[in-house]
Specification:
Blueprint: E1 2-3, H1 16-19, E2 31-32, H2 47-59, H3 62-75, H4 77-81, H5 89-98, H6 103-108, H7 118-147, E3 162-168, H8 172-184, E4 197-204, E5 207-214, H9 216-242, E6 244-251, E7 255-257, E8 265-268, E9 281-291, E10 298-308, E11 314-320, E12 325-327, E13 330-346, E14 352-357, E15 361-362, E16 369-375, E17 384-392, E18 395-399, E19 402-405, E20 414-422, E21 442-444, E22 454-457, E23 462-465, E24 470-487, H10 491-510, E25 514-522, E26 547-555, H11 562-576
Antiparallel strand pairs: 1-2, 3-26, 4-5, 5-25, 6-8, 6-24, 7-9, 9-10, 10-11, 12-13, 13-14, 13-24, 15-16, 16-17, 17-20, 18-19, 20-21, 20-22, 23-24, 25-26
Helix pairs in contact: 3-7, 7-9, 8-11, 9-10
């Protein structure tokens, strides 16, 4: 048995003794089976540089980029499930306290700071590097292809899916240049833009051809889409570093300063500088609310505010829903509104233990609002006081002792309160929600029958608290607004890159990739494409020599518009030439 080895083939994996066997006398160059023995093949090792090159090729492949994009989406899920320190530290502390076993581990692993964690940042940076590594070589190849010439006209046009032919009473060169002009001509609504890159070529023996190619916009759109993704990644990262957002409740007749300490909650990026906030002040003067008289649905909310600049210049302005106030590159939105009753609480010694406006949160469409009044500063060593209840803007008695609000406007406001006494738990070190009462160390006041005591207080009234705890006075009713200040310098860039990504994706999906060829040969000559002469060898009208025109088209993928496009180009070519006739396809 012999093995055949082509002459001149160098195989580094075959022992030298086998590669240098003498050829057999018959010239077959074979060797006997008994002479092929030796060590097993030795595979080359990659080495550190080879492994680095392999890792880079894997990272910059499109499949890895798609995998990282999906992984980034999955990594963002914990940020929507678990509370985040950037948005609500109190919720995080509450979660850790409620889950003593898993909470500390989640905190160590960064699940409460997902978007600034090491693992999320690593995925983000790897996706960025992967996209850049995919784009750069593809861009270089694409630019080289765009600068190149269209492919030469194939010798045989009969093997393409789209074909057409005809005759023209013009020279082959004139036909080829007319075909090039027809392919180069732009759309009717945008004639200055060329649709095809065209090359006219003399094939010899009197035959000329025009080759046209279009569709590089498809790859351009693909590159624009990926570049826009990179721009989105950079913009979002910059926005997360530089943005800030604050929320505050402003009661009518009062104001707030644009400082971090003045906001109820404040979220900021890692690169935010508190000194960059413009120190203006905002005061809520009046608030107008309009409701439908029949359905009680809200129609309009308008907050009339006064903004004072650092130099003392005051300016009147308004804030409406979806019409924010712009200041210092930030927008101040009207997020909500409600009522803040003015309440005064005196302790058992008659001393004022609490006095101020308490925002109550609306619970329904008629602004039935719930609120909590915490009174820790009592004198004489008595128990601390907590008042929990509802504000009814327009109180209506349904049954004996049962009230409801019938209108969101404050036509007949009333407070319905339950009384608690004990330890409010404000000195435990655990943050508390100002709209909730910790009842674990409190006891609710009840009457002699054991029923909970309920207080009904209207504006201007003073009611005694049970068990000699003191008194509560409903001094008046104010409106408040919930303002949301947002500043993200990356938002315009996010919009631009998002639109660019959409445009690039549309081009990559819908731009057709086509190649058209038109060959013009003298009638009766030896046709390279095997075309026939359907109209004879001369023009019967003027005796001019006739030129046989054959055309073909090729598209990448299924393209139902390829044949109509080829017919259009051939019709335009023959129509532009005097004394032409069009044959059958």
């Amino acid at each position: 048995m012999t093995t055949y080895r082509p002459e001149g083939l160098e195989d580094s994996f075959v022992p030298a003794s086998d590669a240098t066997q003498d050829a057999s006398p018959d010239g077959a160059g074979g060797t006997t089976s008994g002479s092929t023995s030796g060590a097993p093949p030795q595979l080359p090792t990659l080495g550190p540089v080879g492994w680095l090159r392999w890792a880079w090729r894997q990272l910059t492949s499109m499949r890895v980029a798609l995998l990282l994009l999906m992984l980034l989406a999955v990594a963002a899920v914990p940020g929507t499930i678990f509370p985040q320190n950037a948005q609500d530290p109190a919720k995080v502390a509450e979660y850790v306290a409620d889950h003593p076993s898993s909470g500390p581990w989640l905190d160590r692993l960064g699940f409460f700071d997902v978007y600034s964690s090491v693992w999320f940042s690593a995925i983000y940076l790897m996706l960025f590097v992967s996209l850049v590594g995919c784009i750069l070589p593809r861009t270089r190849v694409h630019l080289s292809a765009v600068r190149g010439r269209p492919p030469r006209t194939p010798r045989r046009l009969t093997r393409f899916p789209a074909q057409a032919q005809g005759t023209a009473a013009a020279s082959p060169e004139e036909v080829a240049r007319a075909a090039a002009a027809a392919m180069r001509r732009g759309w009717g609504w945008l004639p200055v833009v060329r649709t095809y890159r065209v090359d006219v070529h003399d094939e010899g023996n009197g035959t000329w051809s025009a080759a046209g190619e279009r569709g590089y916009l498809r790859e351009t759109g693909n590159l624009v889409f990926h570049l826009a993704l990179v721009g989105l990644l950079v913009s979002i990262a910059a926005g997360q570093m530089l943005h800030y957002r604050g929320q505050a409740l402003v009661v009518q007749g009062r104001g707030m300063a644009n400082s971090v300490q003045a906001y109820d909650t404040f979220e900021k990026g890692t690169a935010f500088d508190a000194s960059s906030l413009e120190p203006f002040t905002l005061e809520l003067g009046d608030f107008e609310s309009v409701f439908d008289p029949d359905t009680l649905e809200p129609r309009d909310f308008t907050a009339h505010v006064t903004v004072t600049d650092p130099d003392g210049t005051a300016e009147q302005d308004t804030i409406k829903v979806n019409h924010p106030l712009e200041r210092d590159g930030a927008k101040i939105y009207l997020q909500g509104n409600g009522y803040a009753p003015s309440i005064t609480v005196r302790d058992a010694a008659g001393e004022v233990a609490f006095a101020g406006d308490v925002p109550f949160l609306p619970q329904d469409e008629v602004y039935t609002s719930r609120g909590v009044v915490k009174v820790p500063d009592v004198s004489g060593g008595q128990d601390q006081i907590g008042l929990v209840g509802y504000l009814l803007p327009t109180a209506q008695e349904i049954t004996d002792g049962l009230y409801r609000s019938s209108n969101p406007q404050p036509d007949d406001p009333m407070l319905v309160l339950s009384v608690w006494s004990g330890n409010l738990g404000l000195d435990t070190g655990v943050p508390q929600n100002v709209y909730q009462l910790d009842e674990s160390r409190m006891e609710q006041a009840s009457d002699a029958d054991g029923a909970a005591v309920t207080l009904y207080v209207r504006p201007g009234e003073t009611v005694d608290l049970p068990d000699g705890l003191g008194t509560v006075t409903f001094d008046g009713l104010q409106r408040y607004v919930a303002l949301d200040l947002r500043h993200d310098p990356a938002l315009p860039f996010v919009l631009v890159f998002a639109l660019a990504a959409f445009a690039g994706l549309a081009c990559s999906l819908f731009a057709p990739r086509r190649r058209l060829w038109v060959r013009a040969s003298p009638a009766g000559s030896s046709e390279p494409a095997g075309a026939s002469d359907p109209a004879g060898s001369s023009d019967p009208a003027g005796g001019r020599p006739s030129t046989v025109v054959t055309a073909a088209g090729l598209a990448r993928g299924d393209d139902v518009g390829l044949q109509p496009e080829l017919d259009r180009v051939l019709d335009a070519t023959l129509t532009s030439l005097e004394g032409s006739s069009h044959g059958d396809r």
